[in-house]
Amino acid sequence: MAIRTKFTEVFGVEAPIAQGGMQWVGRAELVAAVANAGGLGFITALTQPTPADLAREIDKTRDLTDKPFGVNLTILPSINPPPYDEYRQVIVDSGVKIVETAGSNPAPHLPMFHDNGIKVLHKCTSVRHAVKAQSLGVDGISIDGFECAGHPGEDDVPGLVLIPAAARQIEIPMIASGGFGDARGLVAALALGADGINMGTRFMCTVESCIHQNVKEAIVAGDERGTELIFRPLRNTARVASNTVSREVVEILDRGGEFADVKDLVAGVRGRRVFDDGDLEAGIWTVGTVQGLIHDIPTCGELIARIVGEAEELIAGRLAGMVSAAPVSA
Ligand SMILES: Cc1cc2nc3c(=O)[nH]c(=O)nc-3n(C[C@H](O)[C@H](O)[C@H](O)COP(=O)(O)O)c2cc1C
């Protein structure tokens, strides 16, 4: 058996499961492991300090898999923006055929990607942005609900409503993101009208993810309440792990503080120390509410096989068993 959807067909993968871009986490070993397991992994372009490093990371991934994989290009407003055009050029020159765009309107990047035969999966957090991206001609949508790790947007609409609301207007392949970690989530996403799922936090907590073991164990130990929403008053909300640093950021901004007042607390170098050294209180680190559903640290192969296998059983067994041709007797 296998689960075939518009997403697996258009993006040429076996399983309807993507591993979205993750700053500091989306590297060759993880992406290749997801690809080898039949999913669609994305290297995170901006984790690589320079475009030349991205080219090397793509080569490294190719050495580890001959299956399709993609590159995530996250375009966020920034005082000193990275050289997006150069990263984009590296993606095109590398021959990678799938890109995940996120963070803002993908329009400026689409012509170059499409002219070079690259399919674009655009990740967004609202129905209106999904509809806009579809009208611009992207090849797929990844719709990220309020549950998600990272940037959930400002509308606070969870997947249970966001996914079917988007499905009503989206005709191209659409995967559901935010809060997915197991077969029940995949089956629910399919039932809600999506063609698959995207997972971040769940893939962080796998053998092949390069982050410190302490972080993976913290995710296993954590529950669904263990996150904070920082930058809410600045309307640039991010869901991150609840720790002394994130709680202090929330407090300062709630008291009327400005970005300058929390700049040092949220510095990327501090967050990076969490992933590299395993010091969970060193800084801000991204994680989603789905950590409440994560209880182990499997390989990506085990994880994807388990999710697909259990989803098939759930659909063909438990759910099919609930459908009765005969009327229920009084
Ligand atoms: C550690 C981490 C870093 C992330 N960094 C990015 C990023 O750089 N760009 C991006 O588009 N999404 C990023 N995300 C979001 C994921 O791609 C994905 O949309 C999200 O994790 C889905 O929610 P989930 O964690 O509940 O599965 C990140 C997520 C995590 C956990």
TrEMBL record:
InterPro entries, alphabetized: Aldolase_TIM (IPR013785), NMO (IPR004136)
Keywords: Flavoprotein, FMN, Monooxygenase, Oxidoreductase
Family matches, as CDD domains: NPD_like
Pfam family membership, one: NMO
Domain of life: Bacteria
GO molecular function, one term: nitronate monooxygenase activity
PANTHER family registered for this protein in UniProt: 2-NITROPROPANE DIOXYGENASE (PTHR32332), 2-NITROPROPANE DIOXYGENASE-LIKE PROTEIN (PTHR32332:SF20)
Protein name per its UniProtKB record: Nitronate monooxygenase
Origin organism lineage: Bacteria, Bacillati, Actinomycetota, Actinomycetes, Mycobacteriales
